[in-house]
Amino acid sequence: MAQESQENEEESLQPPGSKSTLKTYVFASTTFSVKHSESENVTRLFQPVDDSYRLDWEVTLRSGYFIKDNFAVGGYFKYAESNDRIEYTNDDGPVLDEAVDRSYSIAPFMRNYLRLGKGTFYLFNETNLEFTYGSGVRQVNAVEDINRNTTDFYALKLGIQPGIAAFITDVVSVEVGTSVLGLSSEYTRTTTNGVEEDDGYTWTNEVSFEIDLLSLFLGLTFYFPTK
User: Fold this and answer.
1) Of the candidates 87, 86, 61, 85, which has an alpha carbon nearest to the alpha carbon of residue 75?
2) Is the separation of the CB atoms in 166 and 116 below 8 Å?
3) Burial of 200 (0-12, 13-18, 19+ CB in 10 A)
4) Which of 28, 144, 149, 179 is most buried as measured by Cβ atoms within 10 A of its Cβ?
5) How many CB atoms lie within 10 A of CB 135?
């Protein structure tokens, strides 16, 4: 009984998160990121802009299972949306340029954790293979003409997401991370004013290892033992 009491006391003295990344634990998280901008009476690409508005946001649902200590595999689903509006005046009169894009992504991933000392902070690095389908509409309303472009796109990305997790309790942590894009391939098809004869496409391949500090995401993660 004395030994059991001593073990319980030692366990209670462990900082939050000491067991949360051990084998057979599972985790589920939600991350969210948003980027917003507005402007009035500015010059953009040599064109005076009367008014502009842009809002980009995305939400990700992620779940994983620790197949060994500090190493998990899992998958996630992500929804992203972008809204862009520009108003300006040309020689013919006022022009309204509006665009909306929506995308859906799924990806398997692997994630490694590294504890910093004996505290509640962990570094993590996630490698994922993401498939994305999206569509968008851009319409330009001018005085004498209206142009409407619709797009459908497919993308495959091999990415790396490093970050840091701070455990509030044994079952809850706050995550902050960013994206490091490694390899990507994207196919986009565009239709102008609904005329199939005007269909066009672009195929883009990219190799990049730039850290995008403007794409920081904040998430809340829950950890649960399965045994």
Assistant:
1) 61
2) no
3) exposed
4) 179
5) 14
Q: What is the 8-class DSSP label of residue 119?
A: S
Q: pTM here?
A: 0.82
Residues 6+ apart with CB under 8 A from 71: 110, 111, 112, 113
**Closest to 139 in 3D by CA, of 89, 90, 83:** 83
Residue given tokens 């842009």 in the structure block: 54
**For the chain, how many residues are written?**
227
Q: What would the pLDDT profile of 49-99 be if each residue is shown by its tens digit?
A: 888 899 999 999 999 999 999 999 999 999 999 999 988 888 778 888 999
CATH of 2-225, one of 3.60.20.30, 2.40.160.20, 3.40.190.10, 3.40.50.300: 2.40.160.20
Domain coordinates in residue numbering, the chain:
2-225
Q: Are 165 and 175 in contact (CB under 8 A)?
A: yes
For residue 119, the tally of other CB atoms under 10 A from its CB is 13
In the block, which residue shows the tokens 């998430």?
219
CA 96 to chain centre: 29
